[in-house]
Structure formats: C-alpha cells, structure tokens
Design brief:
The chain is mainly beta. It contains no helices and 11 strands. Strands 2, 4, 5, 6, 9, 10 and 11 form a 7-stranded mixed sheet that branches. The chain has a 4-stranded antiparallel sheet with strand order 1-3-8-7, with no helix packed on it. Strand 9 and strand 10 form a beta hairpin. The termini are far apart.
Length: about 120
C-alpha cells in the first residue's frame, strides 16, 4: 500500500523559513507528478506547487518567488522550501502524488506563521 508522509511543519515567525518533505513508502514506481496543497480553516484546499517527472514546476500566485518545490531523482520524495513566510501561509499542508490517474494524498502537516 502506497503512503505519503509529510514532515517539517511547525511554528515559525513571519519572515522565517521552513522546509517540508514528502516521502513515499510502499511504492516501486515513480510518480508522474508531485504537488503540495494547503488548506486553511474555513477555506478550500488550494494548490501551492506542482512538479512533473520532467522537472517542470508551477506555483500558486500567492507563493511565487517565495516557495520552491523539488523532488529527488527516484521521484518518490518531494520537498517544499518556504521562505519569507507570512501569517496568511498558515494552513495544513498536504502532499499529493499522481501516477497515471491514481492520486495519493498524505495526512498533512501543520504550518503556523506568527506575526
């Protein structure tokens, strides 16, 4: 059974940085794409960043220039480097992996940015 496990969340002051990791277990394949989403209380889940197997990356407008997504060569682990964090970045961050139409989600990790 494939599982995605996020780590690296926590509490940080505005202007600080965090690095999230998403590791896959139980899989023998490389994901076609991996992405990070976030969901703040009372809001819909939104795309933060996505990276394809070819290395193409795209970002939500609110994080462009501040966040960077990357993945390892085996394409089973992704990272989200978050710089210049703002209080509005506070949310639960979820990792997602896509493999030929099958979607896998992690359980989420809390990121809280204090002002």
């Amino acid at each position: 059974q494939v599982q995605l496990v996020e780590s690296g969340g926590g509490l940080v002051q505005a202007g600080g940085s965090l690095r999230l990791s998403c590791a896959a277990s139980g899989s023998t394949f490389s994901f076609n794409s991996m992405a990070w989403y976030r969901q703040a209380p009372g809001k819909q889940r939104e795309l933060v960043a996505v990276i394809t197997s070819g290395g193409y990356a795209d970002y939500g407008d609110s994080v462009k220039g501040r966040f960077t997504i990357s993945r390892d060569n085996a394409k089973t682990t992704s990272y989200l480097q978050m710089n210049s964090l703002k209080p509005e970045d506070t949310a639960v961050y979820y990792c997602r992996g896509d493999y030929y139409g099958t979607v896998y989600w992690g359980q989420g990790t809390q990121v809280t940015v204090s002002s």
